[in-house]
Design a protein that fits this description.
Length: 410
């Protein structure tokens, strides 16, 4: 694969695309800041999507459109010709290159971007304004350099990648939201900054809101009825005592809790939010069974202590998110291309696991990875998030090389 990447780097059109990426590096950085400053909370990505659609059209992508879920897509390539490797012409399965539109920050967060020396600071500046800006830069470079590929390359900006979005955009995209992207030959997600990591293992998760409900009442007069707040405490303690599995790493975290209406009232309802994660689908399923048993025990323990003749409390488990696990084998040509491209650009690659848009195609058996989009970033998911454009053009270049390797150059 190293030789294949070396041939690509020496190809006249790829060299032209590289010059374009390097020559417009500051333009890409400015777009990154401008996109980051457009609020895009999960579920409210419309304004940012509209701007990305404009940038896709300006870059020269074809058939730019916003689908029913809010994803933006356009495409290039798909030419037949001598030398195309593995291509099926314009009708062939595409290579899908994606970056998510949404941020973890709500509408009340100021997403303005500040420049402090070489650093850009602002909520979402790396995750995922960097991925979006790199996606646009790659599209522009492919068109400007007239890079001809055997398979089409579809560029997609997706909604609902973060938190409660539950990968809604990519699920829609791969379920017929775009005829060209329904069953891609390969999928590459651009997520955040960085140049070393190659995410080929999908970190699956299940998210739950667990609610306990009881009769409630005055904190003195009704004392002894089944107390939902006590049940929450019992559940949290039982879950905290679960043994942590390290191979494969599997975790259960209490990430939120609440309930009650006043200082002198036993609540009628109390709740806790859970985040279960694992790289292995079977381990995640087993953890799910264990967690449900712990929740049942918490409810039973509280009910056994209630006053005779008083109603029992009830437990309700509501799924708020379900992200699949899986892996693209490290030996797969897509992963090998990403490793070779990283080395060719002077960096040592790191195979990694994460929760990204690539989870969905991996679970569907589609070769998929996630890559950082260059530069350096930090404080992800915090208001103090930052980005530094250290050799930033190498990020889009790496992704372009991998995408073209998968699409087959003509």
């Amino acid at each position: 694969m190293e030789q294949a990447i070396a041939r690509l780097l020496a190809h006249e059109r790829i060299r032209a695309a590289r010059r374009h990426l390097e020559g417009t590096d500051e333009v890409t950085l400015a777009r990154q800041a401008a996109l980051s400053a457009i609020p895009a909370p999960t579920g409210a990505e419309g304004a940012r999507a509209a701007r990305v659609a404009e940038l896709f059209r300006d870059a020269g992508l074809r058939d730019v459109a916003v689908d029913a879920a809010g994803n933006v897509s356009g495409w290039t390539g798909g030419e037949r010709g001598e030398g195309g490797e593995g291509g099926e012409g314009d009708a062939g399965a595409p290579v899908l290159l994606a970056a998510h539109l949404d941020t973890v920050f709500g509408p009340d967060v100021n997403v303005a971007v500040a420049r402090r020396g070489a650093r850009l600071e602002g909520p979402g500046i790396s995750d995922n304004a960097r991925g979006l800006a790199a996606l646009v830069a790659i599209a522009e470079a492919l068109v400007a350099a007239r890079v001809a590929t055997a398979r089409p390359i579809v560029c997609a900006a997706t909604v609902g990648e973060e938190g409660a979005g539950d990968l809604r955009g990519v699920k829609h995209l791969l379920d017929g939201g775009s005829p060209r992207a329904r069953r891609p030959a390969a999928f590459i997600a651009l997520d955040g900054a960085g140049l070393e990591r190659v995410v080929h293992r999908a970190l699956g998760s299940k998210r739950y809101r667990v609610s306990f409900r009881g009769p409630g009442g005055h904190s003195w007069a009704a004392f002894g009825v089944a107390n939902p707040a006590n049940a929450v405490g019992r559940a949290a303690a039982l879950l905290a005592d679960l043994p942590a599995a390290s191979a494969p790493r599997t975790t259960c975290a209490v990430v939120g809790l609440g309930g009650g209406t006043g200082l002198n009232s036993i609540p009628r309802e109390a709740w806790l939010d859970l985040d279960l994660r694992s790289e292995d689908a079977r381990a995640l399923a087993q953890l799910d069974v264990t967690v449900r048993a712990a929740l049942d025990r918490a409810a039973d323990d509280e009910n056994r202590r209630r006053l005779p003749g008083t109603p029992p409390l009830r437990a309700e488990l509501r799924c708020c998110g379900d992200r699949p696990s899986g892996a693209t084998p490290a030996s797969h040509p897509l992963v090998q291309a990403a490793l070779a491209a990283t080395r060719a650009l002077g960096r040592e690659p790191e195979l990694a696991a994460a929760s990204t848009d690539a989870n969905v195609p991996i679970a569907l058996g589609i070769p998929a990875i996630a890559l950082g989009a260059g530069g350096r970033g930090g404080d992800a998911h915090l208001p103090t998030e930052w980005y530094e454009n250290d050799q930033g053009a190498l990020g889009p270049l790496r992704a372009l090389l991998v995408a073209v390797a998968a699409a087959g150059i003509v």
